[in-house]
Design brief:
By secondary structure, the protein is an alpha+beta fold. It contains six helices and four strands, in the order αββαααββαα. It has one domain: CBS-domain (Roll), CATH 3.10.580. Helices cover 37% and strands 17% of the residues.
Length: 150
């Protein structure tokens, strides 16, 4: 089974200078957990819902910032950029790589998703949910979503 048969494409992405608030809004709107960070189609990082939660101010920090009229501006998700919270040096795979290789990497590295790169450009993303879909289809003897579209 090839990754290309299970990956999602097109992919929601952000740029390094986009705000954390923008990234958070995309995650919520599209009900996803990871966003590749790209510059001219090239993956330069990835930001996850956990990354964004870890950098969000707590209620106490936000209250203190409000009282002090923004002295904690570094915590403001409308000013904090994605590049400050993203993971760089992202491990990626290609569309022709096997789903089994992706599963091994995702389990070993504890990744929720892997960007799929073709000719140095973002081509898709493979998430845990996509792996579960593949497993379910395999267990039921069903076809991949791409086979059904043909």
């Amino acid at each position: 089974m090839k990754i290309k048969d299970w990956m999602n494409s097109p992919v929601q992405t952000v740029k390094p200078h986009d705000t954390v608030a923008h990234a958070r809004a995309l995650l919520e709107r599209h009900r996803i957990n990871q966003l590749p960070v790209v510059v001219d189609g090239v993956v330069v990082g990835i930001v996850t819902d956990r990354d964004l939660r870890n950098y969000a101010p707590s209620a106490a920090e936000q209250a203190a910032a409000d009282i002090n009229r923004g002295k904690a501006a570094g915590l403001d998700p409308n000013k904090l950029t994605v590049e400050t919270v993203m993971t760089g040096n992202v491990l990626s795979l290609g569309p022709e790589d096997s789903l089994a290789d992706a599963v091994r990497i995702m389990r070993r590295e504890r990744f929720g998703a892997i960007p799929i790169v073709d000719r140095n450009r973002l081509a898709g993303i493979l998430s845990r949910s996509d792996i579960l879909d593949a497993f379910l289809c395999l267990a039921l003897g069903a076809e991949s979503p791409q086979d059904k579209a043909s």
